[in-house]
TrEMBL record:
Protein name, as recorded: DEAD/DEAH box helicase
SUPFAM superfamilies linked to this entry: P-loop containing nucleoside triphosphate hydrolases
Highest classification ranks of the organism: Bacteria, Pseudomonadati, Pseudomonadota, Gammaproteobacteria, Oceanospirillales
Alphabetical list of NCBIfam families matching this protein: PRK11776.1
This protein's record includes keyword Repressor: no
SMART domains: DEXDc (SM00487), HELICc (SM00490)
InterPro entries found in the cross-reference section: DbpA/CsdA_RNA-bd_dom (IPR005580), DEAD/DEAH_box_helicase_dom (IPR011545), DEAD/DEAH_RhlB (IPR044742), DEAD_box_RNA_helicase (IPR050079), Helicase_ATP-bd (IPR014001), Helicase_C-like (IPR001650), Nucleotide-bd_a/b_plait_sf (IPR012677), P-loop_NTPase (IPR027417)
Native source organism of the sequence: Pokkaliibacter plantistimulans
Motif (Q motif): 11-39
Chain ranges of the Helicase C-terminal domain: 223-385
Residues covered by the DEAD-box RNA helicase Q domain: 11-39
């Protein structure tokens, strides 16, 4: 089931099979009409079905998963019956606060927040007194499971909130481990702003015939705009620099046909001050993994790639694709273009075309069933140089999976003693012997100094900024 229908008169909360006491509490809190994600997901979730809901932040998703969770609670049983996993402490605190308000119609419901960056002792003490609902981050939930201070055997509702963000931060293994400690009979509710392959994999592993709900109030269809610019071979570099200076895409893939071209173009862009990395088949797998991780975490804005190397690219928000060299295969062109304009966003593809490549354009127009206008390049030869910084910075720690370093350990260190906000921390990638964490540019010095001077799991790790 997929729905994007806005609420109508008949989609008031009173139209649902909810206890009168819950409806009264909702009315007192000012909730009368359902938002689109609530109207689309609540009938299925209240019926006990697993639900996958794709909806943006601010769409009312907390209430969408809290109501079915609260209807299944037994207030007389002091055991964890609802578990909500969140990517950051800030979101967990926000969710717990909202759930407490929604639970006012029930007597003595205890909602406990378990997050990293906070002392674990008081949390253990609170768990000893019992809790009905736990809202927490994967790393700290795993800590309690390891210490056997948290029992999830009575959980009947499991919620993954902002699941895509948790997977971006490297919590796939942690989430899978936590889920394995819950009963197979539980209801599972997954909320995510996007639906990458990793979400599909996770949902396939732990959900039972989930109802899928997709709410997108803006772009309902993918729109990819194609531009073709006529260039001489010796003008490609200058036009490329002009395009990047003008559009300044936070994420851009520049396609070349050979390894030599990709390296040469990368060297030119870096010399002009752009954040660029080359990706081609001659790179060692470890280096390729690191380059892809840096592009995905937005600490590198421009990826200069060959077609073979880019097959491992799984990034939903590539703003632009520039074909520095046109491919002779129209199907490959479509594949290149498909790197942008994902998840309902508008995409931009710019093609640099030499006179000798006119036949390639004919094949592409037939494949796309469109007629493309060829523009002169004069405008792009006079754009002032304007290199720009990537929005994030990658910090590499010389400790990884083999050192038992987990994403939650790094996130806890950054948001705990170092004092960063969860929103300032980006994707976290854990490799065998090192880890990569993205932090906002303005917070990178503080994060680097804090991680270098502090400890993770009682150990000091060498930390460096990747450039």
């Amino acid at each position: 089931m997929t729905s994007s229908t806005p609420p109508t008169e008949s989609q008031a909360f009173a139209s649902l099979s909810l206890p009168d006491s819950m409806l009264d509490n909702l009315a007192n809190l000012g909730f009368e009409q359902m938002t689109p994600v609530q109207a689309a997901s609540l009938p299925a979730s209240l019926d006990g079905k697993d639900v996958i809901a794709k909806a943006k932040t601010g769409s009312g998703k907390t209430l969408a998963f809290a109501l079915p969770m609260l209807t299944r609670l037994d207030p007389a049983m002091y055991a964890v019956q609802g578990l909500v996993l969140c990517p950051t402490r800030e979101l967990a605190d926000q969710v717990a606060k909202e759930v407490r308000k929604l639970a006012r119609f029930l007597p003595n419901i205890k909602v406990l927040t378990l997050c990293g960056g906070m002392p674990i002792g008081p949390q253990i003490g609170s768990l000893e007194h019992g809790a009905h609902i736990v809202v927490g981050t994967p790393g700290r939930i795993e800590d309690h499971l390891r210490k056997q201070t948290l029992d999830l055997s009575r959980v009947n509702t499991l919620v993954l909130d902002e699941a895509d963000r948790m997977l971006d931060m490297g919590f796939f293994d942690s989430i899978s481990n936590i889920i394995s400690k819950t009963p197979g009979s539980r209801q599972s509710l997954l909320f995510s702003a996007t639906y990458p392959d990793s979400i599909a994999t996770l949902s396939y592993d732990f959900m039972r015939e989930p109802v899928t709900v997709e709410i997108d109030t803006q772009h309902t269809q993918t729109v990819i705009r194609q531009r073709v610019i006529q260039v001489e071979k010796d003008q490609r570099d200058e036009v490329l620099v002009g395009l990047l200076s003008h559009y300044q895409p936070a994420s851009c893939v520049v396609f070349c046909n050979t390894r030599q071209s990709s390296e040469a173009v990368t060297d030119i862009l870096r010399a002009y001050g752009f954040s660029a990395l080359a990706l081609h088949g001659d790179k060692e797998q470890k280096e390729r993994d690191l380059i892809l991780a840096r592009f995905a975490n937005r600490s590198c804005s421009i990826l200069v790639a060959t077609d073979v190397a880019a097959r491992g690219l799984d990034v939903d928000d590539v703003e632009a694709v520039i074909n520095y060299e046109m491919t002779r295969d129209a199907e490959v062109h479509v594949h290149r273009s498909g790197r942008t304009g994902r998840a309902g966003r508008e995409g931009l593809v710019i093609n640099l075309l030499t006179a000798s490549e006119a036949h390639k354009l004919d094949g592409i127009q037939k494949e796309l069933n469109v007629e493309l206008t060829v523009e002169p390049c004069a405008k792009w030869l006079s754009i002032p140089l304007a290199p720009y910084k990537a929005p994030m910075v990658s910090l590499q720690l010389d400790g990884g999976r083999k050192n038992k370093v987990r994403p939650g350990d790094i996130l806890g260190a950054l948001t705990g003693a170092i004092g960063l906000q969860g929103s300032q921390v980006g994707k976290i990638a854990i490799f065998d012997f090192h880890a990569l964490v993205a932090v906002e540019f303005d917070a990178s010095r503080r994060a680097l100094d804090g991680l270098s001077e502090g400890k993770i799991k009682g150990r000091s790790f060498r930390v460096r900024r990747l450039r």
